[in-house]
Amino acid sequence: MMRPLLLLALCYLGIAGPARAQKQPVPWRIDFAGLYQPNRPSIDARREGPDSLRLFVRFPAGTTPRADQHLRVFTWSSYEARRPGWQDDLGPFGQTSRGNDVTVSFCVPLAPLATASVLAVGSLEAVADAPEASAWLPLTAELRRRPFVLADSAGRPLLRRYLRAGETVRLDIDGTTAAVLTLRRFPHDFSPALPPHTDPAGQRPAPRTLSATSVQTLVADQPIRFAEPGLYTLQLGDAPPLGVLVQPGSFPDVTTAPELIEPLRYLTTSAEREQLARAEAPKRAVDEFWLRAAGGEQSVARVLIRDFYGRVAAANRLFTAHKPGWMTDRGLLYVVLGPPDRVERSATAERWEYLGAERAGTYTFRPKPSTFAPDTYELVRRPEYEWLWMRAVQQWRTGKNAPAPRAGR
Description:
Layout: E1 9-11, E2 42-48, E3 52-59, E4 70-76, E5 87-92, E6 102-109, E7 118-123, H1 124-129, E8 135-138, H2 141-145, E9 148-152, E10 162-164, E11 168-173, E12 180-186, E13 214-219, E14 224-225, E15 230-236, E16 242-247, H3 257-261, H4 270-278, H5 282-293, H6 298-319, H7 329-337, E17 342-345, E18 350-354, E19 361-367, E20 377-379, H8 385-397
Parallel strand pairs: 1-6, 10-16
Antiparallel strand pairs: 2-3, 3-6, 4-5, 4-7, 7-8, 9-11, 11-14, 12-13, 12-15, 15-16, 17-18, 18-19, 19-20
Helix pairs in contact: 5-6, 6-7
């Protein structure tokens, strides 16, 4: 059953005709660092009928293509490809919006996607010159078969893999799909990422499989309310399941004392965190921790708090899958070192590069997809990272990486 989700709807149900005149070539080596900045476009997809894939794309304020630009869909056979493969012009971009965001939905044929591993939606200028203004989607086998996306209670696509406890959602479903939904809940006691210099050989391996703690069968076209936090999968028939993490409070923001203390494990000892948690007023104790780091300067402490927990929230938005984003390997570096200055992707790795004397270094991640986390990467840990890491931690603990306080703060 198709619900009225769309702010703009374009549907292509056949193979594109001759390509229109366009600028060529698109650069073969794209810097993806902009995808880890705030306010980037988001994208999700589901199967529609036997031969189409429906894409949902949301452009936040500031990333919407101009009215005179044509929206295009591009595919690449791999991240290493020197130029796009199949592509199609979706025509002038209509300025239909809801609030500050613009959402588009359209279908593309599955046939020309058969040899593609990644898809992008945006203007030609954005894909070539500003990848962060385009929406990028890995074309996995599971994605091509999944017949639904999550939508809010009003039917608007969520385009995220996390929910808040008590949040009500619906499924936007391909009308040809069976309407019986299986909802499974799994254990979700996961550990935060370890420092980049940790020896993997000395760590206890994570379990290879998880067993569901509860299973429910629901009617798929009815609202679903996740009352309890946890790790869930939603599955229609024999189609691939979708993993969703349900979190308490105001996630992805952090506001409670435990939420403020836990990410400090990247900067503190276990004894320091225990002292914070046992304090009579834990939130005040966290403030005092940052005030000490700032050498007693309240304005500097406010900047440190704003930047550190701003990164925690951003990591939650960017990397949450089977656990909160700040706990992942990429979230680890994002919180302590900040957004990378340059990102290169390939079929076998994602490479983050940091520039500048204070945080220079290069880190490599290997893809480690799973049912719960199709876009998860694992850091390649090396002992030589220890000095870089300890220096970065010390910068936080002494307030030396705080930019100048904003006027009036």
